Amino acid sequence: MNKITTEKLAVVALGGNAILRGSEEGTIEQQEKNATDTLENLVYLIKDGYNLVITHGNGPQVGNILMRNDAGEQLYKIAPMPLDICVADSQGGIGYMIERMMRNVLKKHGITKNVITLVTLVEVDQNDPAFNNPSKRIGKIYTKEEADQLANDKGWMFKPTTKVPGAFRRVVPSPAPLDIINKELIETLVRAGNIVIAAGGGGIPVYYDEAGEVRTLDAVIDKDMASSLLAANIKADELYILTDVPFIFKDYGLPTQEKLEFLNYADTVKQLENGTFAEGTMEPKIRACLNFIERGGMKSVITEATKLEDRSYGSKITLEYDN
User: Is residue 285 among the annotated active site residues?
Assistant: First the structure.
């Protein structure tokens, strides 16, 4: 078995389609295959001398957990669990699956490494402005009548969904992450050569009350922003955000579309201010990359997983342009 000598540290954020794709039913066989296909692309980084922390999304999976919550309550009178428990469930389940598939991929390539999954708490500000404007859609789609009833019974908030005209989905706040709980432990584990899976789904949002006790609230944290903060906290060299396109594009989908392969910090900020990037899709990922660079990271890369090994792919954001 090969023992890889590692010097560099990278955080790799897996997009939602790395595990579950929109056209699929979501069977465990489909999710395991998708995870394996994605993780195969990380072998290149491991062989190139990187220690890895892997983060992941949980959007489809936590939505399914919430639907099971609803079904269990309606059919069997099972007490529904709050959102923080549902996020923790998804972290454990997805993390376990990634860990098991990663162990099999490493075995296939003759690489000796331990892999560990950590259910991760992330500190937020309970007074974050996001709590005044819940915007993150979660869970199943409801009719207006169903949404009104749930709003009355449970105090949930709903907004229309573009997926189905006249339908509604529950919305919850998405506060900014402030600190990764157990960041020191994550850094210790990864710098010892272990592959660590952490901050799944953006982490479980928590805050400290006046007595210093850990409390939680109904919210979800953006996965890429949490990954960026984690990368900065553990002093990673690079942050990789894997998505479904190989590059950042200026004016994506328009006749003026242009591939942006290299960007420095200042030019990226200008592009954001000019509205160059799609607000709900690429913009949050780019802001996450900028936050990492701002906090001392050397390089952020946005690309598609299968293009990792080919250095000609991927949009790279650095503090300054390389000479």
Answer: yes
Q: What does the pLDDT average to over 305-311? A: 91
Q: Is residue 110 among the annotated active site residues?
A: no
Quote the CA–CA distance of 87 and 57 in Å, as a whole number.
10
Please tell me which residue in 51, 95, 113, 136 is annotated as part of the active site.
136
Q: What is the pTM of this model?
A: 0.93
> Is residue 60 a contact partner of residue 23, using CB atoms and an 8 Å limit?
no
What are the beta bridge partners of residue 303?
Answer: 242
- Tell me if residue 223 is catalytic: yes
Q: Burial letters for 27-40: b for 16+ Cβ neighbours within 10 Å, e otherwise?
A: eeeebbebbbebbb
Residue of 58, 59, 183, 285 marked active site? 285
Q: Closest Cα to residue 54, out of 240, 243, 180, 221? A: 240
Which of the following is catalytic: 59, 63, 203, 223? 223
User: Is 259 an active-site residue?
Assistant: no
Residue 3: is its pLDDT beyond 60?
no
Least confidently predicted of 186-195, 290-299, 301-310: 301-310
- Residue 278 CA to residue 70 CA, distance in Å, equals 33
CA 321 vs. chain centroid, Å, equals: 27
Condensed to tens digits (0 to 9), the pLDDT of residues 237-290 reads: 999 999 988 999 988 888 888 999 999 999 999 999 988 886 667 899 999 999
Cα distance between residue 80 and residue 139, in whole Å: 13
3 catalytically annotated: no
pLDDT reported for residue 6: 59
